[in-house]
């Protein structure tokens, strides 16, 4: 099947992955495995704490990339999945 796209992403020489429970509920259905399943649908509210964690990860990686002393010439990337 196809993979789910990350919620946030940026390319880099090294990519750091993060998995956060940003949505509180994912609607699931039972599959009979005879047809391709539908994509997952996120419903309910967004967990602001998990969203802050993901934004903190992005901020830290951007700070490292913008620094001339930390990892010069080696850009970091990220892929954050819900």
UniProtKB/TrEMBL annotation:
Protein name: Extracellular calcium-sensing receptor-like protein
Major place of residence: membrane
Residues forming coiled coils: none
Superkingdom of source: Eukaryota
Cellular compartments per GO CC: membrane
Subcellular location: Membrane
Provenance organism: Lates japonicus (Japanese lates)
SUPFAM superfamilies, alphabetized: Periplasmic binding protein-like I (SSF53822)
Membrane disposition: Multi-pass membrane protein
GO MF entries: G protein-coupled receptor activity
Keyword Glycoprotein: yes
